Amino acid sequence: MILHGGGYMVRGARLLLLFSLIFLLGWASASTVMASGFGIFTQGASALGQADAVTAHGDLPEAVFFNPALITRLFGTQAALGTTLIFPDREYAGDLTGDHEKTEDNYYYPSTLYLTHALGEQLSLGLGVFSPFGLGTDWPDDWEGRYLATKSSIATINVNPNLAWRITPAVSLAAGIDFLTLDAELESRVNLTAASGGFFGPLPDGNQTFEGDGDGVGYNLGLLIDLSDDFAFGASYRSEVKIDIDGEVSFELPPSLGASVPEPFLTALRTALANSNASTDLTLPAVGTLGFAYSGIDRLVVEVGMRWEGWSSYDELVLVLDNGTVDTRRKNWHDTTSYNIGGNYRVNDWVTLLAGYLYGPSAVPDSTFEPAVPDSVSHLICLGTDLTLGNTVISVGYGYQHLESVKKHNSVADPLSQASATRANGGYQSDLHLAGLSFNYRF
C-alpha cells in the first residue's frame, strides 16, 4: 500500500505501524541472568553464591522462591531483604560491514523481599516479592541493528504468598499463588529513507517507543523429602502466567527532517506514523526444578540439580491495533533444561563459604534470533559467603556469566526495507557480572 502526498510517496501507514509494533515487541527484553530467554533467577545472595543449587536444602527465607516446602525447616518469624547488581557487557561484530559495537554501560538491580512464619511444627507461611522476568538491552542509537532494537526495558513484580505443610518429619509440601505485573518500554529507530522509498535520498532516522503494561495470575508448588539423614530431594514448579498487555506506540520525527523533504510528504509521513494503541499477550513460561542434596560430610552440603523452562509458550506474537488489524509472527522459542551444582561449607559458627556452577542452553532458535534478545549457551561461575551475627545473616554472592558467541545469519531485518545491510548479521558475545547482597533476620 502506498500513500501519496503532493505527488510524493510514503509506504502505507498501517503496514508501517504494524511492522514497527512487531519489532518493538519482539521481545526486546533481556540480559539473560542464570536463565534462558529473559528469566531472572538472582533471587537471593546466598542462592547466587551456590549457582541456585538450593532446591533440596537451605535455611534462609529466599527458599520461598526456590522451593517453598523448605520453609517448614525455618523456625519462628524470619525476614530477608536483598538486591543484585547486574552489569551486562554485550559486543557485536558485523559480517557485512565489519563494524564492532558494544551496548551502553547500564546497571540493573532486581530486588527481593521474603517473609516466613512458622504457625507450629507442621504449618508455615511464606511471602515473596521479587522480579522473575525482565532487565534490559541498550544498544547505541546509530548501530547497525538500530532498526531492530536500541533500548529495551521490561520489569516484572511478583507477589507470591505460600502455605507449607510438614506432613511427616521427612516430607513437606507447599503451594502458593503468583500475582504478577509487567511493565515494558521498548525503543528502536525508524528507517525514514526506506519509508520514503529512497525518493529523497538518505534521510535522518526517526524514533519509535512502545510503552505497555499488564498483569496475570499463576500458581507454584514445592516438595521436600528427606531420603535419609544425609540425602534430601527437592522439587518445585511455577506455572505459566498469561499477561494481557495494553499500551501505545509513539513516534518521533527528527527536527531536521523538514529541511530535507517537502511539506506534503512530511504531512503524509506524520499521518503514517501517528501514535496508536496496541494490545498483545505474552505467556511467561512454566519453570520446574529438581535437586538432590548430600550432607554426609561434616560441615559440607553439596547439591546437584536441573531446571526446566517452558519457553515453547512463546511460539508466536499476535498484535492487535486499535483499528482491529491483526498480525501474527512466529517466534518458535523452545524449552530448555539447565544443570547446576553448588554447595556450602561451614567454616565455623559465623562464616559459611559458598560456590557453584551452572550450565544453561539457549531458548532462541537461529531462525528468529535478533539482537534484542541475544541469548546463547551460558556458563555461570559463582562464589559467596554467609556471615552469621546473632540473629542476623548477611549473605554476599558474586557470579560471572559467560554466554558463548552466537552468530545471527537469518533474514530478520529492518521491517521497512528488508535489506541485508539492516539485518545486523554477525557475531554476538555477552558477559554479565552479578553481585548480590541480602540481609536476613530471625525474630
Would you mind describing this structure in some detail?
With 443 residues, the protein is mostly beta strands. The chain has a single domain (2-442), classed as Porin. It is built from 5 helices and 22 strands. The protein has helices spanning 13-24, 45-49, 63-66, 192-195, 263-272, and strands at 2-5, 8-11, 77-94, 100-102, 111-118, 123-130, 134-138, 151-168, 171-190, 206-226, 231-238, 241-252, 276-284, 287-297, 300-309, 316-321, 326-330, 336-346, 351-360, 378-389, 392-408, 426-442. The strands form 2 sheets. It has a 14-stranded antiparallel β-barrel with strand order 3-5-6-8-9-10-11-14-15-18-19-20-21-22. It has a two-stranded antiparallel ribbon with strand order 1-2. Strand 8 and strand 9 form a beta hairpin. The longest helix is centred in the N-terminal third of the chain and has 12 residues, at 13-24. The chain is elongated, with a radius of gyration of 24 Å. The chain starts with a strand and ends with a strand.
- Oligomer class: single chain
- Rough outline: elongated
Give the overall average pLDDT: 85
**What structural class results from the helix and strand content?**
mainly beta
The CATH topology:
Porin
Number of helices: 5
Q: Compute the number of strand runs.
A: 22
Relevant CATH superfamily: Outer membrane protein transport protein (OMPP1/FadL/TodX)
CATH class, named Mainly Beta
The parts where pLDDT drops under 50 for at least 5 residues are 1-11, 27-31
Task: Give the DSSP E fraction (strand runs of 2 or more residues).
Answer: over 45%
